[in-house]
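To close the section, here is one more complete example, presented without commentary so you can practise reading it yourself. The ligand is flavin mononucleotide.
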Amino acid sequence: MDLSIVVNGMKFPNPFVLGSGPPGTNARVIAKSFDAGWGGAVAKTVSLESAKVVNVVPRYGKLRSKISGEVIGFENIELISDRPIDIWLDEFRQLKKDYPHHILIASIMEEYEKGRWQELTKLVQDTGVDALELNFSCPHGMTERKMGSEMGEHPDLTEEVTSWVTEVSKIPVWAKMTPNITNIKEPSHAAVRGGAQGISAINTILSVIGVDLETLRPMPTVEGHTVPGGYSSQAVRPIALRMVSQLALSLPKEVSISGIGGIESSHDALEFMLLGSSTVQLCTGVMLHGVKMIDELKSGLEKFVVDKGFTSVSEVVGKSLSYFSTHMDLVQKMKAAKRTKAGEASRDNEWGQKDITEKTAELTSN
Ligand SMILES: Cc1cc2nc3c(=O)[nH]c(=O)nc-3n(C[C@H](O)[C@H](O)[C@H](O)COP(=O)(O)O)c2cc1C
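Output:
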């Protein structure tokens, strides 16, 4: 079945894209994922001077389910790519030559200086990559150089820097948003005013994964110390879904959304698509389960499209958005459905008659 989707003029063989991070850290791993069947990849974020980027070890931390041991949350304090830009430029060229039908997106980040952003934009787009993703959202490390989420947390900077890029870019530009902000619509709309054609959401949530009760050190611990890092994996998915839905309901229709955050299966991916994402990106899921995940992603999407009677993948995008409303409207609808009684039976005064967990289950829909 044809799972392709056209987004901002780019034809993705399927909507599944490697998110910027370890799964796109060099041409070798990107090529492996294209061979496995991924529709596209956002490469690890690059900048002009890799020598300024020095990573630490360890740089990851996991949160596990107390019952099954499954990883549900993941923190990283990894920086952007520490590989020289010249090597990246050669690799972008080679990848596009070897995989002309897969979509290759370069993620770029620079300091707050017009000349640097425009130089990086031109260098990267000249290699033939299909699009650019502007990293306004890495919440740790790079912020000490006023990069990453230091820009995405300030809509005025987001708009200005996006416009520097779109002034010289000839390919689609997506802006990647930080969730570490009260209202994600503000920087996203600012990026669109600056000329972005797509919004990628979300990057990681600022976090501390835990504290070692033996040593009293917060984790991940590097020479006894730590910094807050970016939280990803399954636990962030509900927050990402909420943000994606807010964006889809407020952005102009022609602006595409690439949904990111805790996707590990076709079920998760479909939730993002139903809430307005035309592509989805996976990072931590691929780090934990490998590139072969693409098989289930594709077969699950295909089954869903067939079962629901859709004729193309693009028909799925945004199908659940019309079911959002206001609390006031939910009450009106409930009254109209003559279910007032059921609602009144759940007034707060009633809590306490039953065990709190039973009461919670009674009011939960799934
Ligand atoms: C180890 C690691 C490194 C990452 N590096 C980058 C990066 O270089 N650029 C970027 O835009 N996002 C980066 N991210 C963020 C991911 O692309 C993604 O937005 C986030 O992790 C949420 O998606 P996930 O739950 O599928 O991982 C990184 C995430 C992880 C876990």
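Once you have examined the tokens, check your reading against these statements. The mean pLDDT is 95. The CA atoms of residues 71 and 85 lie 34 Å apart.
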